[in-house]
Structures are given as structure tokens and as C-alpha cells.
From TrEMBL:
Keywords: Glycosidase, Hydrolase
Protein name: Glycoside hydrolase family 2 protein
Family: Belongs to the glycosyl hydrolase 2 family.
Keyword Hydrolase (UniProt): yes
Molecular-function GO terms, alphabetical: hydrolase activity, hydrolyzing O-glycosyl compounds
Amino acid sequence: MRKVFPINDNWYYKPEFSSKDLLCEAEECKASFEKIELPHTNKELPYNYFSDKDFRFVSCYKKWLCLPKECKGQLVFLDFEGVMNYAQVYVNGTLAGSHKGGYTGFSLNISDEVHWDKENEIAVIVDSTERPDTPPFGGQIDYLTFGGIYREVQLRFADPAHIESVFVKTEDILSDKKRMCAEVSLQNINDAGYTLEVCLMDGAEVLAQKQAAIDENANLAAVELSELECIALWTLEDPKLYDVVCTLKKNGEANDEVRERVGFRQARFESSGFFLNGQKIKLRGLNRHQSFPYVGYAMPRRVQEKDADILKYDLGLNVVRTSHYPQSRHFLNRCDEIGLLVFEEIPGWQHIGDEEWKEQAVQDVREMILRDRNHPAVILWGVRINESQDDHDFYVKTNETARMLDPTRQTGGVRYLTNSDFLEDVYTMNDFVHDNGYGKYLQKVIKDYKTYDNIQEIDGETTALRDPRMVTGLDRDVPYLVTEYCGHMYPSKRFDQEERSVEMALRHARIQNASYGDEHISGAIGWCAFDYNTHADFGSGDKICYHGVMDAYRIPKFAAYVYASQVNPEEKIVLEPATYWTRGDRSTGGVIPLTIFTNCDEVHVYCGESLLGVYYPNRELYPSLPHPPVVVDRMEGGWGSKWTDAEFVGYWKGEPVVRRTYQADPVPTFFEIHTDSKTLVSDGDTWDATRVVFSVTDQSHQEMPFFQEPAVIQVSGAGQLIGPSLVSSVCGKVVFWVKTIGQKGTMQIEIITPRLKAPVCQTIEVK
Ligand code: GAL
């Protein structure tokens, strides 16, 4: 039987490499290398204002291990989940293999290189430079790829005859009697007597089971389970998962077993929209980069899972695009568990390289699909280089490869081109047309400087999304999905002036409204979920693109509430006035028009003691949104009049269900720590981490948008701080992650700011 050992602890790292490092003995190496745990970033970076070249170098990772005697006679594999960007793996000084591309994993059979009777040395030379021979590199890209062995590694032992991979296809989904077929790739079936048993399980309960004989020398076997009754569908509300256990047996004895988690669901893009299990669903999503402050891509399972939770539960999304590459297994697993659909794509950004480069991109299609085709959450494969030019032969090949490896899913390929060569099943389009008139305004400003102050006169381009037929140039409707909008058209920082933050939100709202209003658009996935680090050629000069509806710490901007407020009030009531509630932060003062993102039926607005009015969702401006925002267009008093407290009371089904109050005279009042998890796990292998949010809020617990005072963070006990210990607050918040250090016990977090006499403390248990 196979045995799997995660090997993420006790690695040794050196941020450079010379051939001498391969020869250096264990003790000598251990003294000069740094001891680390995986996932690991080759270089911790500041939050912003660093050089985008800082992590582009070749480094060396080493590990020493003895093999368990009971596995002797089995094949030995090393499985890497993600090494950025090119890895060469040496085992006991011999090159065991190499891998190009940092977003998919690879396995190496190291059976010939290992010793069973003494310690083995694994050395990984990691090239984190932007090698132009490997996607996404060769041109400019608007994100950083960071470096290192940034995902997990395991050691796997298997009998010579073993299962290589399992692909479970679920069929007849909408019938009472469903079917599934497990296609199993096999290795070294060199004689007769092998059988394959496939078992469908719901927890510990066996629902169906079948055994089939395997032909001698077969490298593929398929077992179908049919007439499956009482199978719950995988839906967004109840994403039911089952296990499929495939056991390879020789003369009745098990010699390998693989367990895959699956869901029964049907996902189809039609010209009339997207259908899940035959039911039309408007896709409402955002793009996600997998990066985090300081550590780039290297975050462990809990943090990856939390991102999926944030997208589903905090932002109310039903789909995410893993722009622009395959993302962590943990993130995708969580999407399966919580019912968050995924559009996954190959690495790339605008640039297409030479033939060798293209072959690598086709290989990326293979590796992505082979890795992820059992995830029910994945509904579409992106098989183009994001926003590249048409390239007929190349994209015929990526499409063919995808369809061959997974005939159950449709393909898309993200472009910004109109009339593009439509080789995929879904025309996936980045539609950046909406600029709320700014483009025309700018042209006029440039032409006639005098019109500069008269924005009112400008007849702006307010189109939110283009008509799909206009984009495709086809005389028929085809499956169509908007895969990006907003982004660079209107970046906004969390600490921007109120007007700018509000306008960013309104653009997201206008575009979502347009998507809901066009039955031929399957949905719209905005740019983007979280602010991200980028190259000097992009962003705000500090190596950040402030395009997220949340900042890089996953703290919401007003735009986040456009999405959050679209959820059914039965699930969650949302009431988020897009205001700092100040007399003088906006141009000309005041706070109107004041947009309130809410799913309430009505909002009662009070200024001081008096009721200003009762306001309803604005269906005139947003006729198609499930929950249009409320717009308050009137306010009493002007510059020089007394500013008062405000209260917003949301009503649902005639009852007051939520209340938000704002102070006329806010002062820092509450200093609180919130952690995403109160318990972390030290499992003796890899590290665990959680986000910590320290908030300074006013008398009504409202955020303080311009509170920037410094804070000192101290973490002691069984944990460590990620990032610097002295930081400035942003809008009254200090956000960071803490990690385990291989010890059980408790971790103490203390934060102090100039306004506090004693630190605020929080304890995290490490089990
Ligand atoms: C798109 C691109 C994204 C991001 C975005 C910013 O063109 O696909 O990666 O750069 O622009 O708006």
C-alpha cells in the first residue's frame, strides 16, 4: 500500500547557490544555511516600496532524511506542489529531475537515487528569476510571482504496480438514477490477477461498489457505478461531497488505494447564461491573486482556506477566477466545501513566446487539468494566455488538450479583443469599457484646457458593459462571460478620500447591474478581490495595484459592500452606508449623494434626533441588481451649520433589523483585537497561521479612516509575527499574520499604540 509522509519541516535554505553547495556535507551545510519550514518564500519583503527584482535569484534548499525500513522494496516519489519558478532536484548528489513553472506541482521517482541504509540528501536548486522561456514570463506582467518552495512537499512510497491518478466523471446528474465513472491511470500492471475496486462513500457509509478485472499491461481502467439513487447534488447552498475510493488489488490483496472527493453537479454555459444543475445562476465574482503581504505566495492551508471563506461569506460571491494561474490545493478544496465556483486558468499575461514557450503553456494546461479535474467547484478551464493576441494554432492545441483531458468541462480563454478567433466554448472577455465618462472628459480637457472645471458639460461614456454580439462580432449569441472590469480604470486605496472610494464602489455596482440586466451575459467577475504587489510598470509606484475591493490584508473598501449586499437577507442582513460621515471630506463638503449598500427593504435615516427620511432601494438607477443600493440625495444644512450624529436603521419585512450610528465628533474609543482563528495547530510538520486585526474605532465602533498612529506588536510564546513589529495603522487598523513555530502551548499577542496606557492582549492556543 502507498504511504505518504509530508516533509515540510527541517529544511535548510540559502538565498544563493553555487555548485559547491551540492557537495557540502550535512553538518557544514546546516551551520551555514538557515533552518526553515515549508511553505517558504525565498525573501520576505516589505509591504510596499521594494524593488521588484528583490526576489529574483537562484537559491538552494536542502533536507536530510532516512527512509522508513518498512517501505523498502517500494518505489519512492517526491511530490512538490509548487516551486517558483524552475526547480532542479538532486538526490544524494544525482540530478533526479527538474520542473518548469511555479504554479503546478510535479512528482519525481527517486527510487534509483535513494539509500535505504543511510541518510539521504535532497537538494533543490530553485530559480526564481523571470525566465523568459517559461510562462508567464517573457514580457511585462502585472503581478509579482515571488520565489521559493512555497507550497508543500511530500514523500510517497508505492508498490511498483500502483495507481497514478483518478478522474471521476459524474453523469446523468439530473436524473434520479445517477452514474459515475472512475477512470484510473495505472503503472506497472505487468501480469494478470489485478482488479480495481471502486467505492462511492458518504462519510463511512458505502453507497455503491464495483470491482473489475484489469487486463495485463493495462495502463488505464474504468469502472462505472450506475443506478445511483438518493445522491444529493453539489449546489451553492449545500455543496454535498462524496468520496470515491479506488483500490488496486492483486489476488484479492490491496496494494494501492486513492481517495478522491467528488460532487455530483452539472455546470453549463449556454448562450442564455450559466446553469448549475439545470438552474440558471447569474455569476457574480471577483478575480483573486494568491499573494499576501510580506511572504508573497507562501501561506499555509488555513490562510488559503480563509480566502475562499472571505470571498463566499464576506463578499457574497458565487464565483472566483484564479487569475492568472492555478492556485493552492487548499484554496480549491475549500471552494468545493463551501460552494464557491472557480474559473481556473493557465499562467500567462499578454505575452506569447516562441514554440518552446508555447509547448510549455500546453504542458501547463495538462498539469492544471490533471491536478484539478475532480474539483466540483471548477466549472471552466482558461486555456489562453490572459489578454494575449489571437494565435490560431496555439489555441487550437490548448483547447484540444483541455477537451481531451476533461471532456466534461467547457473551455474559455480570457481576451480583451473584440472579434477574436472563437475557439473556446465560452467567450470570456475583459470588458473595461466603463469609465463613467472620464475618457471623453480627458480628451476634452486636453483639447480645451478651459473646460477643465466644467465636468457637467461632458457627455460621458457611461456604458457599463458592451453588448456580447458587439464584442464577439458573431451574428449569433454564444456563451459569454465577463472576466474583468474596473481594476486600473479606477484604482482606489482604502485610505482614499470618500468620493473616490465611493466612485470605485459605484462602478462595480453599475457593471454588476448591467450584467444582471443582460440575459446573454453569464455573469461578471470584477478586477479584483484584493490589492496586490506588482511590478514597477504597473500600480501606484509603490509596487501595489490598489484594484481590490479589499486591501491586501483583506479589509473591505466600500466596493466590497456592492457584492456583500447582494446576498439574500434570509442569509445575512447587510447595511453599509458608503460614508465617513464628515462635513468636509468631500469636494464642496457634505456626504450626498450618500449610497447605502444594503439588502434591507427600507432605510430610515436620522440626523441628530430628527428623521431625515425613509429611503428605498433605488431601482431607477439599478433596475437589475438583486438588491439595489439606497441613495440619499438630500441633507439639511451646509458649510458652517452644525454637524450632527447620524443613524441608519435598516428594515426588513417591516421590522428594524440593523442599525448603524455615526458620530459627529469621533474620537478613538475602542481598541480591540480580532483573530480569524483562536486555535492553531502545530502538527510537527508544517506551520499554521492566522490573521490578526487590531482595530481602533470610535464611540459607535465605526472605522476611523484617517487614524494612522503607529503600533508596536509583540508576539511571544509558541508563535511568531510575520512582518515588521512597528507599523502605522491604516484607517485605524493594524493587520498582520502570526505563525506557529513548531511548539504547542499558547501564543501571546500584545499591541500598544501612543494612545494606550497598557497593551491590548490576545492569546492564541497552539494545539
Ligand atoms: C487586465 C489584466 C489584469 C490586471 C487588470 C488591471 O488587463 O488582465 O491582470 O492587470 O488589467 O485592471
